[in-house]
């Protein structure tokens, strides 16, 4: 039984992987765009960080993690479109008729986007170091410890939206609005110290705030894994809550409306 379940999940993963490799352009754009924006934002962030008495700051300390977090949440659309695609292609009924259970359908759909999210973070941070002079003062292991739960949180946010939205248009609107809201409140667009008072009060309610808090602790303050346990724990809590929403509202017999 377990082998059969793993086999069905693996088949879904292979299918998603083939489709993503067939048209990688959207993923390439989501990786290149933050690098382009960093070039424009770095001087502004340099001024803001030096105003906060961050010694030797060149702006990349805010630009790289900020753009990495912001554009990672735009990856939510990739998660959703993979699910709505099945309805648009009229292949969802075939999946329903097969032996796959709802849990297997969800599990099979999160692995490829999760791998892409982790790879996107790695590329953006790596390119930030090479192109913009980012110097990580803390532990690289701590970067991974924050980045992986952040990536999983993004993927499960996408699955939760899929379970709640009936049409792909609804999903796209909510996903993009959330990405922009999370970027603003979380400190991706400006250092958290520069946020207005009302935004500072709301900021801890979004996962991007805790991701930026963790990355800032590592990049600027030189922290290690022990220093970012709180952000890691909160990101895991967000992921658990989004997983619960997905499992509660996801129904295999729900009809979704795609563009095609």
TrEMBL record:
Keyword field contains Translocase: no
Residue ranges the record marks as coiled coil: none
Subcellular locations according to the entry: Cell membrane; Membrane
Entry annotated with the keyword Secreted: no
Predominant cellular place of this UniProt entry's protein: membrane
ABC transmembrane type-2 domain mapped to chain residues: 25-253
Transmembrane segments: 27-45, 65-84, 105-134, 140-164, 171-189, 225-250
Keywords assigned: Antibiotic resistance, Cell membrane, Membrane, Transmembrane, Transmembrane helix, Transport
Membrane topology listed for this record: Multi-pass membrane protein
Domain of life: Bacteria
Family, per entry: Belongs to the ABC-2 integral membrane protein family.
Protein name: Transport permease protein
UniProt source species: Streptomyces monticola
